[in-house]
UniProtKB/TrEMBL annotation, chain A:
<feature type="binding site">
    <location>
        <begin position="337"/>
        <end position="338"/>
    </location>
    <ligand>
        <name>substrate</name>
    </ligand>
</feature>
<dbReference type="Pfam" id="PF12890">
    <property type="entry name" value="DHOase"/>
</dbReference>
<feature type="binding site">
    <location>
        <position position="72"/>
    </location>
    <ligand>
        <name>Zn(2+) 1</name>
    </ligand>
</feature>
<feature type="binding site">
    <location>
        <position position="166"/>
    </location>
    <ligand>
        <name>Zn(2+) 2</name>
    </ligand>
</feature>
<dbReference type="InterPro" id="IPR032466">
    <property type="entry name" value="Metal_Hydrolase"/>
</dbReference>
<protein>
    <recommendedName>
        <fullName>Dihydroorotase</fullName>
        <ecNumber>3.5.2.3</ecNumber>
    </recommendedName>
</protein>
<feature type="binding site">
    <location>
        <position position="106"/>
    </location>
    <ligand>
        <name>substrate</name>
    </ligand>
</feature>
<dbReference type="InterPro" id="IPR050138">
    <property type="entry name" value="DHOase/Allantoinase_Hydrolase"/>
</dbReference>
<dbReference type="InterPro" id="IPR002195">
    <property type="entry name" value="Dihydroorotase_CS"/>
</dbReference>
UniProtKB/TrEMBL annotation, chain B:
<feature type="binding site">
    <location>
        <position position="285"/>
    </location>
    <ligand>
        <name>carbamoyl phosphate</name>
    </ligand>
</feature>
<dbReference type="Pfam" id="PF00185">
    <property type="entry name" value="OTCace"/>
</dbReference>
<feature type="binding site">
    <location>
        <position position="104"/>
    </location>
    <ligand>
        <name>carbamoyl phosphate</name>
    </ligand>
</feature>
<feature type="binding site">
    <location>
        <position position="241"/>
    </location>
    <ligand>
        <name>L-aspartate</name>
    </ligand>
</feature>
<dbReference type="InterPro" id="IPR036901">
    <property type="entry name" value="Asp/Orn_carbamoylTrfase_sf"/>
</dbReference>
<protein>
    <recommendedName>
        <fullName>Aspartate carbamoyltransferase</fullName>
        <ecNumber>2.1.3.2</ecNumber>
    </recommendedName>
</protein>
<feature type="binding site">
    <location>
        <position position="134"/>
    </location>
    <ligand>
        <name>carbamoyl phosphate</name>
    </ligand>
</feature>
<comment type="function">
    <text>Catalyzes the condensation of carbamoyl phosphate and aspartate to form carbamoyl aspartate and inorganic phosphate, the committed step in the de novo pyrimidine nucleotide biosynthesis pathway.</text>
</comment>
<dbReference type="GO" id="GO:0004070">
    <property type="term" value="F:aspartate carbamoyltransferase activity"/>
</dbReference>
Length: 460, 339
C-alpha cells in the first residue's frame, strides 16, 4: 500500500461496497465507496484498498448512474395480482436499474383515496426492491366526473405528488382545470394521458397507411395533440404544473416545444417503446405490439428521439403495463393494450440515443433519474431519489455494462408477465448492479433476494 | 399453398390459376350430377363469429359439391359470447381434425392469428375479417368481370360465358368501387387483387368514408360519382353496401342523411345511362335498395349481382380444391404464408 492509498473496511451494519475503476455518468474513472447507505467516498481510480468485510465490485467496463426513477409504472396490485404484484414489479424494476417507481392509479380498487395509496406505499416499502410512490387518481374511480380527494392523498403517509387517471384521459376541460388548480396547494402535478376519447373510439392502432391496409381502426395523432394543446393552454392560464404522459407524435413534440418557449410549466415523457418501435410491427397482428398510445410512424419516432435529445421531452418512462398470457394470446382486437418495459428501457435508450451519439450517459442520468424525480418531487424528504452521484448522497446507484449484448427472453424476466415487445431481440447494455440506499438489490446482473428486509404483510 | 388470408400476397399467376380452376369447377356445375369426389373424407369447418348466411351457405355448398364433410360452427350466441376465446375454439377444431377452417370474424386479423398462432394445423380461409379482407369475394368479383369483360375489353373477340377469358388477367379493365370504402373488406380485397390483375381502380366515396392512409393503395380516389362515370367510363361499377346506422352520431355520423347519400353516391337509372354499353353493375350483397342502388339499377340487364352469387360457389370450390387437393408445386412458390 502506497502512501496515497486509502484503506476502507466494512465494519458498519450494512455491507460496504468498493466499486473499483468505474465511470460515473460515463466520465472519468473513479473508485466509489458505498457505506452506511450513502456514497462515502469518490476517489481517483486505484487509490482505494478494500479491508476486511468489504465487497469489491470490479467496475472495469461499467458506467455508474444514479438509481433510475420511473414516473410511470403499472404494478397492478391491488386487483390484478395475476398480471403483476408490487413485489414482482419492483423486483423487475431493480433488475432494470430502478430504485424508485411511481405506481399508476388504475388498480382495483382505484388509487383514489388515502387508504389505497397508503396500502400501495406500504407494500412497496415491505417488498424492499425499490421505493414505490403511488400516483393518485385525478377523478373518483377514474370516471372523469368528480375530483378524487387529492389533498388527503397528498397528506397521507404516501405523500402523493403525482396525480393521473392514466389509462383514461381527463377529457372534461373543466375537471382538468380544477385538478390543475387544486394541486397547486401541495405542489402536485397532473400527469395527463392525452387521448381525445371521441376521436379514438374503437381505435386499435395508429391511423395511417398501415391501419388503412390491415383494416384496424385508427388512433389519429391529432387525438393526442388536441388534448396536449388544450392542456398546455389551461396550465398556462392557471399557472400550474402539467406533465404529459407517453407523448408519441411529431406534432406533440412541436406543441411541447412551443409551450416551453412560452414559459408554460409543462414536462413531457416518452416511453422506451415509442423510442424504439414503429407501427410497422402491427402488420402481423401480433398483440405484443398493441399499446396505447399506439406505436407511430418512423417520422414520429425520429421526432421523439430528437425531442428527447434537445430537452423538449424531459424524461423517459416505461409505462410498464404487464398483462397475463390470456390477455395477450388472442386476436388483436380482443387483446389488452400495453407492454412491459422496466427491464428493457435502459437498453433501448442506450441503443437509440447513446449508441447513436444523440445523448451522453449524463443525459441518460437526467432523463431516467434526476428529471423524473424532480417532476415527482422526491429529490428531497426522507427517502430522496434522483440525486447526483456525490459524496454524502444516498447510495442509490446503478452499474451498467454498455458492452454486453443480450437477447431479451420475456419468460425469464423478473416481471410476472411476459408481454415484452422486445422478446427475441438483441439489445445492448445490461444492468450489472443496483443499490438502493447502499443495499444491493441486483448483483452480477441477478436480483439479490431481500432476506434482511421485513416481509410482514407482504407474503405474496 | 397453405392458407388464403388476403389478396395481398396473391401473385398474378396464383390469381389466374384460381380463376381458371373456378372456370373448370363452374363447368362441372352444369352437369346433371354436380358432386365431385375430390375431397371425400376431408373435413371443412365453417367457423362464423359474425352472421353471414349467404357466405356460409356459399362455402358450405362449395365444400359439399367436392364431397367434403362440413361442420358449421356458429360462434354467435354460443359459448364465445360467454368468453370462450378464439384460441379455445381453435384448439377444439384441431382436436376434431379439421382439414380446413373457413373463418368469418368481426376482428381484423383474426384469420391471420388463427393461421399463425400455432393453434391449428388446418388450412385457414378468410371469409371476411373486420374491415380487413374478404379474398374469396374479390376472387369471385374478378372471375365475374373476366367472364363478362374479357376478352371484350382486351379488344379481342369472344363470347361472354363459361370459360370465357381463361388464362387472361384483367389488363385494361376500368373499375369504379363506390361507397363505404372505410369499413369495407370487399374494397380492400378488390383494390389489391384488381391491381395485381392489371385493372385500373377508382374508389368513389364521400371523404368521411375514405380511410386515412388510402394514398398508399394502388388506385385513384374520387369524391364525385358523376365525374367518374362520365370521365372514366368504367367497364364495371361495384356498389358497396352502406349501413344506414353510419349516419347517426353513434354510428360515426359519416354522412348527413340517406337522401343526401343517395343523391351523391347512389346508382340509379340516370347514372346507369352514363355508362358504356358493355359495362356491368356489381354488388356484394345484401343490397340496400333505394340507398346505394335503385331498383332499376339492381334489376337492369347490366346487373350481374345474382351471377356473382353463383360464381362465388365455383370460386370457393377452386380455393378449397387448391388448398386441400391441388398440386402445391404448381401454385405455391410465392408467398406461402399468404396463399
Ligand atoms: Zn397512459
Amino acid at each position: 500500500m502506497t502512501s496515497s492509498q486509502i484503506e476502507i473496511d466494512g465494519s458498519s451494519g450494512l455491507a460496504t461496497y468498493l466499486i473499483r475503476d468505474v465511470a460515473p455518468l460515463g466520465g472519468e474513472r473513479v473508485d466509489l465507496v458505498l457505506a452506511g447507505g450513502v456514497i462515502e467516498r469518490i476517489e481517483p481510480s486505484g487509490s482505494v484498498v478494500a479491508g476486511e468485510g468489504v465487497v469489491v465490485v470490479e467496475g472495469g467496463h461499467l458506467v455508474a448512474l444514479p438509481g433510475l426513477v420511473d414516473l410511470h409504472t403499472h404494478l397492478r396490485e391491488p386487483g390484478r395480482e395475476d398480471a403483476e404484484t408490487i413485489r414482482s414489479g419492483t423486483r423487475a424494476a431493480a433488475v432494470g436499474g430502478f430504485t424508485a417507481v411511481h405506481a399508476m392509479a388504475n388498480t382495483t380498487p382505484v388509487q383514489d383515496t388515502a387508504g389505497v395509496v397508503e396500502q400501495v406505499w406500504r407494500l412497496g416499502t415491505e417488498a424492499g426492491w425499490a421505493d414505490v410512490h403511488p400516483v393518485g387518481a385525478v377523478s373518483v374511480g377514474l370516471e372523469g366526473t368528480h375530483l378524487a380527494e387529492l389533498g388527503a392523498m397528498a397528506h397521507s403517509a404516501a405523500q402523493v405528488r403525482v396525480f393521473s387517471d392514466d389509462g383514461k384521459c381527463v377529457a372534461d376541460p373543466i375537471l382538468m382545470r380544477r385538478a390543475l388548480e387544486y394541486v397547486k396547494a401541495f405542489d402536485g402535478v397532473i400527469a395527463q394521458h392525452s387521448q381525445e376519447p371521441r376521436l379514438t373510439e374503437g381505435s386499435q392502432m395508429n391511423e395511417g397507411v398501415v391501419s388503412a391496409e390491415i383494416g384496424l381502426a385508427g388512433w389519429p395523432a391529432v387525438a393526442e395533440e388536441a388534448i396536449i394543446a388544450r392542456d398546455v393552454l389551461l396550465a398556462e392560464h392557471v399557472g400550474s404544473r402539467l406533465h404529459v404522459c407517453h407523448l408519441s407524435t411529431a406534432g406533440s413534440v412541436d406543441l411541447i416545444r412551443w409551450a416551453k418557449s412560452r414559459g408554460i410549466r409543462v414536462t413531457a415523457e416518452v416511453t422506451g417503446h415509442h423510442l424504439g418501435l414503429t407501427e410497422e410491427r402491427a402488420r402481423d397482428y401480433d398483440p405484443m405490439f398493441k399499446v396505447n398510445p399506439p406505436l407511430r410512424t418512423a417520422a414520429d419516432v425520429e421526432a421523439v428521439r430528437e425531442g428527447l435529445a434537445d430537452g423538449t421531452i424531459d424524461i423517459v418512462a416505461t409505462d410498464h403495463a404487464p398483462h397475463t398470457r390470456e390477455d395477450k394470446d388472442c386476436e388483436w382486437a380482443a387483446a389488452a393494450f400495453g407492454m412491459t418495459g422496466l427491464e428493457t428501457v435502459l437498453s433501448v435508450v442506450q441503443q437509440t440515443m447513446v449508441d447513436t451519439g444523440r445523448m451522453t450517459w449524463a443525459d441518460v442520468a437526467r432523463v431516467l433519474s434526476s428529471a423524473p424525480a424532480q417532476i415527482g418531487r422526491i429529490t428531497d424528504g426522507p427517502r430522496p431519489q434522483g440525486r447526483p452521484l456525490a459524496v454524502g448522497e444516498p447510495a442509490n446507484v446503478v452499474l451498467v455494462d454498455p458492452a454486453v449484448r443480450r437477447v431479451v427472453r420475456p419468460a425469464e424476466q423478473a416481471t410476472a408477465s411476459a408481454n415484452s415487445p422486445f422478446g427475441g431481440v438483441e439489445l445492448p447494455g445490461q444492468v450489472m448492479a443496483t443499490f438502493l440506499r447502499g443495499r444491493a438489490t441486483v448483483l452480477d446482473g441477478v436480483p439479490v433476494e431481500q432476506d434482511g428486509v421485513s416481509r410482514v404483510g407482504a407474503s405474496r | 399453398m397453405k392458407h388464403l388470408l388476403t389478396t395481398r400476397g396473391l401473385s398474378r399467376a396464383d390469381a389466374i390459376r384460381i380463376l381458371d380452376t373456378a372456370g373448370q369447377m363452374a363447368a362441372t356445375q352444369s352437369r346433371e350430377i354436380k358432386k365431385l369426389p375430390t375431397l371425400r373424407g376431408r373435413t371443412v369447418v365453417n367457423l362464423f363469429f359474425e352472421d353471414s348466411t349467404r357466405t356460409r351457405i356459399s362455402f358450405e355448398t362449395a365444400a359439399k359439391r367436392l364431397s367434403a364433410d362440413v361442420i358449421n360452427f356458429s360462434a354467435k350466441g354460443s359459448s364465445v359470447s360467454k368468453g370462450e376465446s378464439l384460441k379455445d375454439t381453435a384448439l377444439t377444431l384441431q382436436a376434431m381434425g379439421a382439414d380446413a377452417v373457413v373463418i368469418r370474424h368481426q376482428a381484423s386479423g383474426a384469420p391471420h392469428t388463427l393461421a399463425h398462432a400455432g393453434w391449428v394445423e388446418a388450412a385457414v380461409i378468410n371469409a371476411g375479417d373486420g374491415m380487413h379482407q374478404h379474398p374469396t369475394q374479390a376472387l369471385l368479383d374478378a372471375y365475374t368481370m373476366r367472364r363478362h369483360l374479357m376478352p371484350r375489353v382486351g379488344r379481342g373477340v369472344g363470347v361472354p360465358g363459361v370459360g370465357a377469358g381463361a388464362g387472361l388477367d384483367l389488363a385494361g379493365v376500368r373499375v369504379a368501387i363506390v361507397g363505404d370504402v372505410l369499413h369495407s373488406r370487399v374494397a380492400r380485397s378488390n383494390v389489391q387483387l384488381l391491381h395485381t390483375l392489371g385493372a385500373q381502380v377508382t374508389l368513389v366515396a364521400p371523404p368521411t368514408l375514405v380511410p386515412v392512409g388510402v394514398e398508399a393503395w394502388p388506385c385513384e380516389v374520387s369524391y364525385h360519382l358523376d365525374e367518374v362515370l362520365v370521365d372514366l367510363q368504367p367497364d364495371a361499377v361495384m356498389m358497396l353496401r352502406v349501413q344506414r346506422e353510419r349516419m347517426s352520431s353513434a354510428g360515426g355520423g359519416f354522412f348527413p342523411s340517406p337522401l343526401e347519400y343517395t343523391r351523391n353516391y347512389g346508382l340509379d337509372a340516370v347514372r346507369l345511362g352514363l355508362l358504356p354499353e358493355h359495362a356491368i353493375v356489381m354488388h356484394p350483397g345484401p343490397m340496400n335498395r333505394g340507398l346505394e342502388i335503385s331498383a332499376e339499377a339492381a334489376d337492369s340487364p347490366r346487373a350481374v349481382i345474382v351471377e356473382q352469387v353463383a360464381n362465388g360457389v365455383a370460386v370457393r370450390m377452386a380455393v378449397l380444391y387448391l388448398l386441400l387437393a391441388g398440386d402445391v408445386s404448381q401454385v405455391g412458390s410465392h408467398e406461402r404464408a399468404s396463399l
